[in-house]
UniProtKB/TrEMBL annotation:
The keyword Metal-binding does not apply. This is 2-nitropropane dioxygenase. PANTHER family: 2-NITROPROPANE DIOXYGENASE, NITRONATE MONOOXYGENASE DOMAIN-CONTAINING PROTEIN. InterPro entries: Aldolase_TIM. Keywords: Dioxygenase, Oxidoreductase. It comes from Deinococcus seoulensis.
Amino acid sequence: MTHPAPLMPPSLSLPPLLSAPALPRIIQGGMGVAVSDWRLARAVSMTGELGVVSGTGIDTVLLRRLQDGDPDGHVRAALSHFPDAALAARTVQRFFLPAGRAAGQPYARVPLPTAERHRDAWELSVLGAFTEVFLARQGHANPVGLNLLTKLQLHTLPCLFGAMLAGVDTVIMGAGIPRDIPRVLDALAAGQPATLNLDVRGGDPVPLTLDPAAYGGTGAALTRPKFYPVVASHVLAGVLARKASGRVDGFVVEGPTAGGHNAPPRGPLTLDSSGQPVYGERDGADLPALRALGLPFWLAGSHGTPDALARALAAGAAGIQVGTLFAFAAESGLRADLKADVQARAHAGTLEVFTDPLASPTGFPFKVVNLPGTLSQAGAYAARGRVCDIGYLREAYRTPQGGVGWRCPSEPVAAYAAKGGQAADTAGRKCLCNALMADAGYPQVQRGGHTEPPLLTSGDRLNDLRDLPTPYRAADVIRVLRG
């Protein structure tokens, strides 16, 4: 996979952040696996708005970049600044392939982490998050954010710590209720061990603890980043503002037309004639109630226009979060062939986005772009052999023997049922882990030479791409949004 080469300073270093920066009017959404990569976040932050890197799957992204030969040398250059030089050097020595992988060669896999055995995954997550934020901060002194999925509890602690080591300014988390994250940020900022509970179906939570001293921490205090949970309603915002484990600094308020995972509709699930969840007035946020909380908030979901930004500001919001327009910018990590195909179809006005109630193993509705050659097509879905070899969306469950097991409704049906899962829950489930890696140009080669297909997600207004030139850059999006 190739990217436009950024203008990098002769030597990499951590720039100081500007003191007391104004709140951004535009937050670039944290999208997919390495779609919101460091190049895109850096380009947005350089305009003075908030660029955001995606921390989802960052351990596997780092691993695969090294195995692809790190052609521009940016990953190894960033790792040379990691506080634990021995850990960084050991990781490069273990996984870096100077000539990249041979054609058809699978990526090396790290053993799937568990609550008891996760050292490899945590080391790579710390290093990957550090690398992504470090590179996004090069060449400017503006803030950079990190986006995580609350559902990925097993990887949250190391991602937060690695990003904080690199000076991340803001953490944004959705796909769940991140009530305990403020306490975690406080502990890590103080150089102290941080604990986060892993939810276990059918049993009590299992505490996970990260000691900074074991993963590159020096004992020195780190800057505590701002924390913006993603909420779908003013009710949840109010609960987090009052009952979170520490300081909440603002909210991203996401409507059901936003890409990626959506909050389920409130009340009983009803599907329309095409099989999509039906959202109503109860699923919208009460903006006066949000304003009454006294914290800044940004509106997300079909807000990627100058008029939408103006309306958001007039309603008392600090601004908007925009994903889709940035996902197809030249700097994003999305594969070039997928960008070109989507942009051509957008200009023809033929793109369709389907809110799939079944696709995601999480159970949350998930926006899927109907695009040939991807898992959105029934034939491609049927032809793919089920395998769970990355495992971010696995669910922890209590076994009959009292231990903690792991299962995912997108894994082989017989394996899921053998672990106590209901076979009916596997219908329509798609392996987002492998598909989103493929979106960013890191598809696994499975047994028999089968290469994992992609699956694109987007907000409902994907056809708005026709209003932008082809190709376009992140700065073009900023200019359009600013009017």
